[in-house]
Amino acid sequence: MLNYVIRRIFQSVVVLLIVGLVAFSMFRFVGDPIDNMLGQERTQADIERLRTQLGLDQPFPLQYWRFLENAVQGNFGVSYRQGRPVAEIIAERARQQRWNWRPSAVSLRS
Q1: Is residue 1 domain-resident?
Q2: Would you say residue 53 lies in a domain?
Q3: Which residue range forms the structural domain that includes residue 83?
Q4: How many H-runs (helices) and E-runs (strands) does the chain carry?
Q5: What is the model's pLDDT at position 109?
Q6: pLDDT of res. 34
Q7: Is residue 13 part of a domain?
Q8: Residue 19 domain-assigned?
C-alpha cells in the first residue's frame, strides 16, 4: 500500500510539472506582456527596465526554473493583466468562493 501511495505521489508531481510547463510556455506565444503592462506611453528604457525586473530577458529554461522555485514558496509572480501579485488574486477569489461551497456542504449532510 505504501508503495502505491508513493508511486501515485510521484505521478502527481510529474503531471504538475508537465502541466505547469505547458501553461508557462503558452504565455510565450500569447504576445509580449510588456505591451499589456505599459500601454502606449512607454519608452525603450521602460520596456528594458520592466523586462529585466520580470526576468523576461533570461532564457526560457531559467525563467521556468525560477517560476518553479517561487511557486514552491507561494510566490506566483505578478499578473500581467492586473499588475498585482497572483497570490493576492488567488486569495481574493478563494474568499469569494467559500460562500459557494457552503450550500453544497449543507445539502450533503442532509
Answers
A1: no
A2: yes
A3: 31-109
A4: 5, 0
A5: 61
A6: 79
A7: no
A8: no
Helix (H), strand (E) at residue 23: helix 2-30
Query: Phi/psi zone of residue 32: left (φ > 0), alpha (ψ -120 to 50 degrees), beta?
Result: beta
How far apart are the C-alpha atoms of 67 and 21, rounded to whole Å? 10
Q: Are 25 and 31 in contact (CB under 8 A)?
A: no
Asked if pLDDT for residue 11 goes beyond 90, the answer is yes
Q: Is the separation of the CB atoms in 55 and 70 below 8 Å?
A: no
Q: What are the pLDDT digits (tens) for 20-73?
A: 899 888 877 777 777 777 777 788 898 899 889 888 889 989 989 998 898 888
Burial of 79 (0-12, 13-18, 19+ CB in 10 A): middle
User: Which grid cell sits at 22?
Assistant: 505547458
**Rounded distance between C-alpha atoms, residue 36 and residue 39, angstroms:** 6
Count of structural domains within the chain = 1
- Measure the CA–CA gap between 71 and 55, rounded to whole angstroms: 15
